[in-house]
Amino acid sequence: MTSLAAARDGDTRAGARIGLWWGVGHAAVLLVVGLPLIALQAALPAWLEATAETLIGAVIAALALRVLWRWSRGAYRVAPHRHPPAAAHRTTPQALGIGALHGLAGTGSVVVLLIAALPTPGQALVALTVFAPVSVASMTACTAAFSWLLTRRGGAGALHHILVPTMGVFGVVFGVWYAGLA
After folding, report:
1. Quick one: which of 38, 23, 4 has its CA closest to 127?
2. Are 58 and 179 in contact (CB under 8 A)?
3. In three state form, how does the secondary structure of 10-61 look?
4. CA angle, 51 as apex, 46 and 55 as ends, to 5°?
5. Is there a contact between 25 and 100 (Cβ–Cβ < 8 Å)?
6. pLDDT tens per residue across span 38-69
7. Per residue in 26-36, pLDDT tens?
8. Which residues contact 140 (CB under 8 A, 6 or more apart)?
């Protein structure tokens, strides 16, 4: 999500909104898929979970490649500038969709852990119901923080020349590994 948040050009509130939509997509799928799985004491089909995890790994790698491509073209500059309003509208559905895929990829593991760790399905249902909105808050906060960090004027040289490409390379490597392609 750093790729989408950093595109907000230092607008931490806009970055937080991207994180919010990422979290909403994630939490919605956790609840829509996870609550019935807990109630039925069932699990996601292995093929669906594996496919979702492969897809989210590929998305992570693609977004990291986007960071590297934009960085190589001079993006993430710290001088104030504006983008057309349409750019902000494109990122909201992207963040929601990425969050939903992320939620699907993680739901199986979260549900299995909750059922195994808690004595009753009712407690697991409550735990997931609490976890989902907290994940929205944490994703919003983390994305706002990254948005702020990546676009600060102080230390811009180090940020631009070291942190952004390092995060991009790490994202590509992690995404390829997570997708099972390495």
Report:
1. 38
2. yes
3. CCHHHHHHHHHHHHHHHHHHHHHHHHHHHHHCCCCCHHHHHHHHHHHHHHHH
4. 150
5. yes
6. 888 888 888 988 898 899 999 999 989 988 99
7. 999 999 998 99
8. 16, 19, 20, 23
Give me the amino acid identity at 106: G
pTM of the entire predicted model:
0.80
**Cα distance between residue 97 and residue 104, in whole Å:** 11
Residue 72's nearest CA partner among 172, 165, 175 is: 165
Q: In whole angstroms, give the CA distance from residue 77 to residue 82.
A: 12
Q: Are 81 and 178 in contact (CB under 8 A)?
A: no
Give, in order, the Cα–Cα distances in Å from 68 to each of 3, 29, 122, 168. 9, 30, 45, 5
Cα–chain center distance at 9: 18
AA identity, residue 41: Q
User: What's the CA gap between 79 and 77, in Å, rounded?
Assistant: 6
